[in-house]
Amino acid sequence: xxxxxxxxxLALAATGNFSRAADDRHSSQxxxxxxxxxxxxxxxxxxxxxxxxxxxxxxxxxxxxGVAQELNARVARVPGDAKKIAEASSxxxxxxxxxxxxxxxxxxxxxxxESHTTLGPVQLMSDVLERCEALMLQSKxxxxxxxxxxxxHGALDAEPYSSSRIGExxxxxxxAPNEGGSARHxxxxxxxxxxxxxxxxxSGLGRIxxxxxxxxxxxxxxxxxxxxxxxxxxxTMALDGRGIAWLPQTLVEEDxxxxxLVAAASSEWAVPLEIRLYRDSEPLGKAANAFWNTAVGG
Length: 298
Hints:
The protein has about 300 residues and is an alpha/beta fold. It folds into three domains: about 5-75, Winged helix-like DNA-binding domain superfamily/Winged helix DNA-binding domain (Arc Repressor Mutant, subunit A, Orthogonal Bundle), CATH 1.10.10; about 95-165 and about 275-295, D-Maltodextrin-Binding Protein, domain 2 (3-Layer(aba) Sandwich); about 170-275, D-Maltodextrin-Binding Protein, domain 2 (3-Layer(aba) Sandwich). The chain has eleven helices and eleven strands. The chain has helices spanning about 5-15, 20-25, 30-45, 60-85, 100-105, 105-115, 130-135, 205-220, 230-240, 250-255, 285-295; strands at about 50, 55, 95-100, 120-125, 145-150, 160-175, 195-200, 220-230, 245-250, 260-265, 270-280. The strands form two sheets. Strands 3, 4, 5, 6, 7, 8, 9, 10 and 11 form a nine-stranded mixed β-sheet that branches. The protein is elongated, with a radius of gyration of 26 Å.
């Protein structure tokens, strides 16, 4: 059997139209029809009822549709599975982390783990959460480190992935101070629209903000004046007095301690966060499994 036959079968099963399915697969209709017939001869039964248009699946065709989808999915996993086997003996840890945690939590956390075990080489990829998730889905990393919240679910919050809470943080609304030391911009204070600095759709913190605070913010007079992927960029704009930003406590605790940023809303606007380490449920190799056990146990 040729894998291209499966692709053609699924295309025809979706449309029932030989001409359209052939076009979708960039093939001439005669060549496409020959592939479908070759598949049927290999199976030993008709897969399509051609007596009417559009063509419909026979009983065997209905059964084989599930088989074909399962085979295609299995084939798609082969490169990632092969990479896992090849790297089973590797000592290098491949971690994807969101930018905010790469700058703040990650260095201290790794240092604390090293007091309990010896870590091998670490390959870190720092990016927005959406791209970190993609790296895990493609089996290009063994772990993803990110902020999380129970109301904001992502691609890794389901099988075959698992996670463990390894720390905590909080999103706090902050603003640059005015000359008197109070917040230059305050939520729910004053007559005009309050300028807000916002995360993009790709940002994991933006995902949490939308899930937790979007409706409450929409009920107030606010104006989004700046949007960015990174908490570090929103921090810079907040320091410049451009508006209110919800930033991780781990990122701005020194700014708050030095008075460069001050609270811009009451504590009820704070968003508690978990810091979670994600992994594939499949075995990762000796070094990676040892790292996971130490991280979760620590």
